[in-house]
Amino acid sequence: MNSLLLVLSLVLTAPAPLQAGAATSNITPPLGTRIVGGFAPYPAEHIHDELHARCLVLDDGQTRLALVVCDLLGLHRSVSIEARRLIEKETGIPPRNVLISATHTHSAGTALGHNRYANEQELDDYQRFVARRIADGVRRALNLLRPAEIAFARVDVPEQVHNRRWRMREGSVPPNPFGKIDKVRMNPPVASPDLIEPAGPVDPAVSIIALREPDGRLISAYCAYSLHYVGGSGQAHVSADYFGMFCEALKRRQPRGDAEPPFVALLANGTSGDINNIDRLNPRGSRVPYQRMREVAEDVAGKVQAALDKIQSWQDRVTLDARSRELQLDWRTVEPELLEWARAVEAQAPRVPGGDVPVGAKFATERDWVQRLSYAGRIQLLAEAKGPALVPVQVLRIGDIVIGTSPCETFAEIGLEFKQHSPLPHSFMVSLAHGYIGYLPTPRHFEMGGYETWPGTNYLEPQTSVKLLDALIEMTAELVPRSNEKK
């Protein structure tokens, strides 16, 4: 009798067969929307390729997870809260089980709102539209749930990733906007004789979560790669950058990619805060608009497809779970002398009667003053930030896969450290999740300085990366029984 009860108990607690569904929602803004990739946003004049929220829903019979990747520079915390509120109301999936991230394309409209240095804000029209379309995409993916098998794969694509922060020969680094000399330089001249070495590592891995129907047809592939946007779009064009091109390229490689329901690829931004596609040691020829994006997208998609073709072990049952927290951290300290500098810049900067207003600034100015005026405005806004910064972090468990998140442009070495310390073998991070709270360097990088550490580019206390990683590892340990830890 006891044996029968034990067997019955195991049957009742075992995961049900996995189901998965995937869909997309168009989030393209109207022409005239400000493109926010540079210091001075400008109005969009053409849509080169549509922007999307790409959505994947998983169901193990007891728990549902939703993973969403949006073609946006970033989204404010309030947008994620509203989207997840709608999702819970309309599908029952709780907010902690929904991962919403941005790709960081620099040729898109903004979902950041009027103040990047505030925890809460009233949503503008485009932010409400994005939240609504994310919720619609999750509902559509839920409508397409069907029996699924899952597998994890990884492939290295090292030739496309380069650390953009460089140690330089003494005397070769120009002053930063605040008149000080940094120990490193972001994006120094290619093939410069002053280059010494990159200031940090790269993460060449593409992490791949593959879902297929029992007959072998792929449903979706959720991928993460630690490469910043590529750029090179047409003038005043809206584009999803290589992230969107990768998704279309991977779809074209599927034998029945357009069959109903269609295959959906997702490419999340891993930890690319200090990584881009420019090899500083080897000059390359000029490119026409979109050429380099396509080259990167096709290369990564080809290697991901080769990895998919080699998968031999698929599972139809996995355990799904999630944890989330909001860390209360300090905003970046703005020293009194820095505020004085900011006010002096505003007093000195020429005003022009028309033109694009730099991010954070109160008025348009001449080209030579754009960067300084932008930082003058950003610093004053950052100094006004009230209360602790609310920093959302999350971990999702999908069988022996763990995804950790950060709401920042996260340095590659942070993602590598998470992989090293996570108790499960298939672990990776996704950046720009549930918010956009500036760059996230490690404490050692603050000693070096550079663009990513400047106040106004970096929003949070210097120990943020340590506290964020500690929280991710703690939450991961809650999800993973010790018997399942990697050896």
Describe this structure in words.
With about 475 residues, this protein is an alpha+beta fold. It folds into two domains: about 375 residues, no CATH class; about 50 residues, no CATH class. It contains ten helices and 24 strands. Strands 7-6-5-1-8 form a five-stranded mixed β-sheet, with helices on one face. A four-stranded mixed β-sheet has the order 9-14-15-17. Helix 6 packs across helix 7. The radius of gyration is 23 Å and the shape is globular. The two termini are about 35 Å apart. About 0% of the residues have low confidence.
Number of strands: 24
Distinct helical segment count: 10
- What's the arrangement of strands in the largest beta sheet? 7-6-5-1-8
Rg on CA atoms, Å: 23 Å
Structural class: alpha+beta
Name the average pLDDT: 95
Instruction: Report the span from N to C terminus.
Output: 37 Å
Number of domains: 2
Largest sheet: 5 strands, mixed
Helix content: 25-40%
Shape summary: globular
Low-confidence parts lasting 5 or more residues at pLDDT below 50?
A: 5-12
What fraction of the residues are assigned to beta strands by DSSP? 15-25%
